[in-house]
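Figure caption, in words: inputs first, then the predicted bound structure.
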Amino acid sequence: MMTIARYRVAGARSFSTASGVSTVGVIGLGLMGHGIAQAAAEKGYKVVAVELEERFLQGGLKRIGDSVKKITSKAVEKGKMDKAVGDAHIASTMARITATTDRGALASCDVIIEAVIENLQLKQTLYGEIGRVVKDSCIIASNTSSLSIGTMAGYCGRPAQMIGLHFFNPVQMMKLVEVVRTDQTDPKIFARAMEFSRSLDKTPVECIDTPGFIVNRLLVPYLTSAMLLVERGVATPADVDTAMKLGAGHPMGPMALADYVGLDTCLSIIGGWQSAFPDEPAFKVPESLRAKVAAGKLGRKTGEGFWKWDGDKLAA
Ligand code: 3HC
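Bound structure (3-hydroxybutanoyl-coenzyme A present):
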């Protein structure tokens, strides 16, 4: 039986080594990657954060710093943590992150989570490099929302080590991780990935390598159905969102959630599926979605989509 060692770190957090992970590599510090790096560092893991350019690294680190300060100051305000412990937690979290543009640094990692943009050409080159530098025991994971894990396994040439670890936005708050296996994934790698996800205080669910896995396969057609409903003049975006919040108990309505996820991301997912499965009616691409993306109104990240945004919140 495997022994589970637990380490205490500042802020009374702990992590398990049953997964055999002590160093986590995160490639890409954007919307998802910064949250994944933060979640791992807050739990006591050493993190190697890799970006293409120094300015992206600095942007990602700032985002992590702001978020960890926000979470910690809330915990202090609520009396869940002493101010001194909170300050130490912020400092130790940031100190655990090594930021670099050198992909060779991934050689020391026990798990690598790729969270770069959904561009297969870029991923092909990247996975080729990953395959050359990683350890034989390294869990190689993609946070892709809709691309095939099997395709990336082929690019890196290490299919037994390859899985999907699909986190949700905002990673700091969302409790789910979809753990995705292909026919070639080594069951030991899969079991370690499940344990690693639990050690981040997330709930993992198992899924096979299929378009959209579980959540996006159900969620993205729901978001685009809401857009189509608005296009048909059934209701306004505001009333659709109010209806789903108050009538179905969702934390956000679908129009706001599409903006929150990013309309370019929604279009890339549904557009890709429509091309691959042209007879599937659930994969119809709304004209309003195409128009918003063409106009550069990508949702929260550009300050406007179906709604206007003020930072992370809907504008008043
Ligand atoms: N860092 C730190 N804290 C954060 C944060 C961040 N990035 N984002 C939110 N928070 C904290 C806030 O500070 C706040 O803390 P408090 O409760 O202690 O005051 C708490 O989260 C709640 O935030 P808000 O008060 O701003 O607003 P809400 O109560 O509405 O919660 C939400 C925000 C958690 C985003 C909630 O609206 C929600 O769950 N929305 C649905 C999100 C969702 O469905 N995500 C999945 C998208 S699909 C996806 O990611 C897959 C991809 O592949 C496309």
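The chain has two domains: 4-208, 215-314.
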